[in-house]
Every structure is written in structure tokens, then in C-alpha cells.
């Protein structure tokens, strides 16, 4: 027999406080994690991050406008401190969980015959599953997952406001609630375009629940149904790049972007998010899926979808419209990210934020039905619910640990997607940036086993070996990179730097010249230290040429060095000395010596420069006297 729980505002308040505390607790270890992946693009490289006023101007409306505004506000309050961005994400998730609770409670109490007591229990279980599920970590802990979180927040708010406006006992003027629902829908679309499914879900909600004495007649809300697609069209018109995959709404390239085989792959992949929801293990930042159709697997997926549709309409809808709603919610809300349009990633966990609500409500009903049976079975149902929520909480805490640093996140991803080239490349780059060169070698070697013709991987492996002191390996890696892609200037630059470290300055000078020519040909700016390193290499190569009695070549190299870096004192001195002693040109030598003395040399350097300048003056006077004598003749 079902235990009666008195419903009071205090009970609801207590539930919300408990949910807040638990969610804060399990996400606490993610609040101080650093920026990751796209965070740099959204925050550090955003041209409008320092100007929240940009987003207040309606003429500047663009895709994910509300998400951009939230990042700008975060920057205004905390600059580039990740804590504030993480806290904002957690607060969004808490508010979304509240909305899920109220939607479930109103739906069960007003749209079914189960009553208020059952509604509160199912709503609590739904909110706990939604708020604590590990699949939400990518939306919450990953700062750039915020667009999906904001879209979910306003998506749920819009649906809740529509439900409230459709109730007969509504105490607020309905038109206000409907307008607020439309406004929330607009905010959801400007958070992330996946919210486009809301008008369809509202119609399905109406068909499943809005019937009976608790609701206003259909004709009183019919006009508002039309407002949602009209509003969506207006937003797309004002911000045409909101559908970036279409380039523009009337783009002639749209049909070319339709990839029907990819649509079949996405249909087959529907099993994977369902599996992750039921068994959230081996969560990863990037998944490695085949992009070709596996027909046996696809037929199995189609059979599952058809079975769900059959149950939804032939069985559930006649007996339990709640289950129909849950079954339809997931495939319809995930459709914008699992369709026939090309995407960077076939599936991302953050795309499950809105779709997971239907699954949470579905399994909340099942857990409730177990717990309302006989006494001992009810105890098992309660224990199962608590076990699931405890396990989910522990998984969230553990999953957050992967975000401790960029390298830890990508190392975790590489372990789970070892054959995905982009993952291995990203991991190795983060290791190199963090100075962990020994750790960078392993993923780089693994990538070369997959494809030995990746010039950038050879190059990064060379950088790692060079930093570890394995110069022969580094030289081989850089030469392999040049062999595969001879027109890549970075490979030549890295090889030149290695030769400089090995004291092979003539070879270094030659590679620097090749790199410089390739940088110019590509219109690419070289690294900041390139020109200073090149000038030193030319200078040292000039010294080698003098030692091998190749004075003309040495002169050319010293002139290159001074031309590259006029403030390199040693190059000025060497050029001046060679001009004086080899070319017997004291006038040019004096020019370089005067320039060298203007570079604030130390006392010993000043003495040497002045001695050479005196020699130049003497030779200059002697040469002038000789010229005068010749004139007299």
C-alpha cells in the first residue's frame, strides 16, 4: 500500500535544498579545473568577451548569442579565472534540475490519474536521475558545454511555463505565461540551436497529457502553437548563421551537405547514447565511431526504433500516455545532433542533456512502480533507487577528475579512443605544452603505427626527442617530416634549431633560409624566436667559414646575420673585422663598429670594439693619404 506523504511547500523546499547540496557536492572537485579544448576559442580568443554590451544590441544577434553573453558576463566578473565559469555551469544545472522536478510533478499530478503524492515521488526520482547522472558531466564540468546547458535550462522553462498557462487553476494571466514561454524558447534557441524541437514536443505533450477537467480547452491555446515556429523562423532570419551547417537559410549548397549514408550511421548510433544512459561507464570526451554503415547493426537499430514506436502508439498511448511521451522524447530531442547533416563529431555526451529528461522520467516511473508494490518489494525498489543515485554521484566525482588538466582529459580520451588520430595528436600537443616530453612520445609512436606518413606527428616526435636529449632520433624525425611534406616551414625551422644546438651552424643556416622562404611563400608568420635564432645561426656559420678559409661565404653570412638582427653585437663585430682585414674597407667597418658601440656593450667588449675602431681609423687615414698621393701624381 502506498505511503501517504503530506505535500507542503516546506517538503518541496526541502527537496530543492537537498538537490542543490548534493549537486554542489558531487561537482565540487570540478570547480577549479582549468580551461579545456574549445574553452580557449569561446573565452580567450573571443573578440567580444570583454564587451557584454555587444550582446545587448539586437543588431548583433548571432548563433548561440545567449551563450556568448554568459561568457562575457563571466569574464567581466572574474576575467580568466575558471572557477566562476564552472560555478555558473553548476548553477545552470541545478536550475535545470529544479525545472525537471516541477515539470514531472505537474505532469503526473495533472496529466495522469496517479495523484499528487505519486507525482512528488516520481518527480523526486526524475530530478535525482537527471541531476546526478554522469552523462551530464560534459555539459556541466566542461565550460564549453554551457550552450547545451543553457538551451536545456530555457527549453525546460519554456515547457514548464506552457504547462502552467494551460492549467485551469492558473492564477497568473495566461497570456503572460504563454509570452514568457515564447521568450524562453527564443532564449533556448539562442543558447544552442538544438532547442528547435520544442514546438514538436509541446504538441506531443498536449496530445499525451492536456486533456480532462484540469486543463483549458484546446482552442484557447491553439494560436500559441503557431507562435513557436513563427518565432523560430524570425530568429533564424535575424541570425542566419544560427544554422551554421546550412551556411544560410537559402544556401544552394544545402542539398550538397545532406549525407544520407551518414544519416543511417546516426540512426544506428542511437543505441550508444541509450547504452550510456543505462550503463554510464567508459565515458569519454571524444568517441571513435565508424563513419560507414554496418547493415546488421543498422537493421537491429531500426527494429528497436519500430518496436518503440509500436509500443508508444499501440500499447502505451491507449493505457499510459506518460510512457508514450517518454519513448518519443528521446529520439525527437536528439534528432538535431543525430541527423543526415555532417558534424565534427558523430556523438558527444553534451548532446544528451535535453534528451536525457525523457529517459529519466521513464525510469523514474519504473522505479516508482517497483517501490509502490508489496512491502518487501517496495524496500527493494527504494534501495535500488538509492544505490543508483549513490553510484551515479560517485561516477560524477570520478569523471570530474579527468578534467584536472588538459593532458589528463586527453589521456583518458586516448585510452578509450586509441585509434582516433585527432585524439592522439591533441594529447601529445598538450604533453609538449606542459613540458612532459617523455609522456608525449608514447601517443606519438602509437599514431605512427596507425599512419606512418603523418608529417606533423614526426615533427612533434622530433621536438619531444630533442627536448629529451635524443638528438639523433630528433634529427631523423625532422628529416622524415620534411620527406613527407617538404614545403612545411616548421619542420625546416625545427631541424635548423636542432643543428644549432648540435653546433652544425652551416647546416642550421641553410635550413633557416629554407624555412624563411617557405614561411614567406605561405604568407605565414614564423615563431617569435625565428629571426633572432636565424641571425645567430648565420653569425656562427660565418665563423665556421672563416675557420675553413672561405672568406667570401663568411662575409655573406655575416651580412645576412646583421640584416636579420641589427642588434646582434657579435655579428656587427665579426662583419666589421672581416670588412677591415679581408676587404680592406675601413669605412664600412667603421659603420658597423659605431653601430656596435651604440648597443651598450660591456667594458671588455667596448675595449675590443674601440681597438678595432682605432685600427679602422688608422687604415682609413692611411688609405686617404695614399689616395692623395695618387692624385698628386
Please report the total strand number as a whole number.
0
Order of helices and strands: HHHHHHHHHHHHHHHHHHHHHHHHHHHHH
Strand content: under 5%
Radius of gyration equals 34 Å
Structure notes:
Among the domains are: 28-403, no CATH class; 567-633. The chain is mostly helical and 633 residues long. 42% of the residues are buried. It contains 29 helices and no strands. It starts with 8 loop residues before the first helix and ends with a helix. The protein is elongated and about 115 Å long.
Any chance you could write out the topology, listing elements then pairs?
Elements lengths: L8 H19 L11 H6 L20 H14 L3 H30 L3 H18 L4 H4 L5 H21 L7 H18 L6 H12 L12 H17 L15 H4 L2 H10 L1 H8 L16 H25 L1 H14 L21 H16 L3 H27 L4 H11 L4 H13 L3 H14 L4 H13 L3 H14 L4 H13 L3 H18 L7 H18 L3 H14 L4 H13 L4 H12 L5 H30 L1
Helix pairs in contact: 1-4, 1-5, 1-17, 3-4, 3-8, 4-5, 4-7, 5-16, 5-17, 7-8, 8-10, 9-15, 12-14, 14-15, 15-16, 16-17, 18-19, 19-20, 19-21, 20-21, 21-22, 21-23, 22-23, 23-24, 23-25, 24-25, 25-26, 26-27, 27-28, 28-29
